Amino acid sequence: MEAVFFTNRGLQRYQNEDALLIGNKVYSDVDFLLPQSLQFLSDEKFIVADGLGGHRKGNIASFLVLDYLKSQQVTNEKDLQHYLLNAKLVLNQYVKSHPQAYQLGTVLSGIVVLSNKLIVFNIGDARVYQIENKILKRITRDHSYVELLYQRGQIRYEDMRTHPRKNIVTSCLLGDEKETISEIFIKTIPRNLNSTYQFLICSDGLWEMLSDKEIQNLIWTSKSTLELANCLKIEAFEKGAFDNISYIILTI
Fold first, then answer.
1. How far from 53 is each of 62, 87, 205, CA to CA, in Å?
2. Quick one: CA torsion of 161, 167, 168, 170, rounded to 10 degrees?
3. What DSSP line would sit under the chain, residue for residue?
């Protein structure tokens, strides 16, 4: 199992509020120059957390959530829901001792890899795509205003990237003293140990810069996963890298 991953503040933001959980290590407040690669043998968690830049201390929110989740043993969807709710309570507790950070928050998406299944999830507008036979397919469903418009047929799928209200999320992990999460997407994929699976986990800083079609073209033309990861970085920066950009290409 290989994880190739990248996180960077981009060209417009002064701080990287994204964080990554790669196995049992959290990468927070860092700017990679190039994608990194690690190999894994056992069950692990791989998560992208995108701290809410419009709120206070998004970088702290993304770190606190991943730092909590890294040590939790997830075996099924019920476990995952429980720990995600607890992660929200971690933010609530932080707010109690740091009231100036009220409503710090993060969205996140990821995959829990187990011996017999893969648990895919997201909260907010961070995404998980599956790459199967070099074809890109979105698995998760955004919790956002533009996703609602798209599902109602009011805008095209491509319009979600450029709509003036694209940054409005309808679910996230928020330190607001409430004890519920609006929406959580979870999907379990049975795992065949004789099959290879590949996924792209990313923040909106990537998919707003590159359309699904553009990512698909890079998948077709890249000769390796590391080359694909580097091409994603180059293309996103050439287009302006307006937001923090974080992603994981996971091959199982």
1. 11, 19, 12
2. 70
3. -EEEEEEE-TTT-SS--EEEEETTEEEES---SS-EEEE--S-EEEEEEEE-TTSTTHHHHHHHHHHHHTT----SHHHHHHHHHHHHHHHHHHHHH-GGGTT-EEEEEEEEE-SSEEEEEEESS-EEEEEETTEEEE-S---BHHHHHHHTTSS-GGGGGT-TTTT-BS--EE-SS----S--EEEEEE--TTS--EEEEE-HHHHTTS-HHHHHHHHHH-SSHHHHHHHHHHHHHHTT--S-EEEEEEE-
- Dist. CA 221–CA 243, nearest whole Å: 25
Measured at the CA of 215, the angle between CA 169 and CA 192, to 5 degrees, comes to 90
Cα 157–Cα 161–Cα 164 angle in degrees, nearest 5: 110
Say which residue the tokens 């986990």 belong to.
201
Q: Which CATH architecture has domain 2-251?
A: 4-Layer Sandwich (3.60)
CA-to-CA distance for 23 and 194, rounded, in angstroms? 22
Per-residue model confidence (pLDDT) at position 42: 82
* Lowest model confidence (mean pLDDT) among 39-43, 105-109, 126-130: 39-43
CB 87 within 8 A of CB 72: no
The pLDDT of residue 53 is 72
